[in-house]
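Researcher: Please predict.
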Amino acid sequence: MFALESTSTYSQEIKRSRFTATAAPIADMDAAKDFIARNSIPDANHNCWAWRVGQNYRFSDDGEPSGTAGKPILQAIDGQKLDTVAVIVTRWFGGVLLGSGGLIRAYGGTAALCLQAVPYRPIIPMVQASVELQFSDLALVKAKLLAQADARITEERFVETGAILEIAVPEANTEDVIRKVSDLTNGRAVVSVK
């Protein structure tokens, strides 16, 4: 799966109707709703949209015939293996009816061209873990964790015996990170994968 690196806009005219798509990376469902509210244009005839965050997705035809707008936009998202993305396609009617097939091609095609115009980055599955360690091991373990590609320390708490680090590491490197922490602390650190 991939995520967008930035926002993108694409416009085209099809049989005198103007279609403008805007796509953006989103963090969650609330961000998707905010994006749609901010990018809906009140004087347009239709503001059709779709978004996906993991297994959650929604789409809207906004008055167009059922299945001719929102679903093709979602298919453009899924066809490019994107996640955490929202797309809105706005239409200003130009007086020529496009028919169901024409609407599907117009909405899906405008969304796809908009999505193709922005760089993607791979989504790396992460694992959350807690590392409980002594004060004497803290600086070395933090330095080695931060040197790991894509690893992050999300929280640091001090306790009577030392510190607890909440970390996020790439799923593919989990065993390697646990082994490194154990080796660095001579087995004194306790790692709990969540």
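Model: The chain is about 30% helix and 40% strand.
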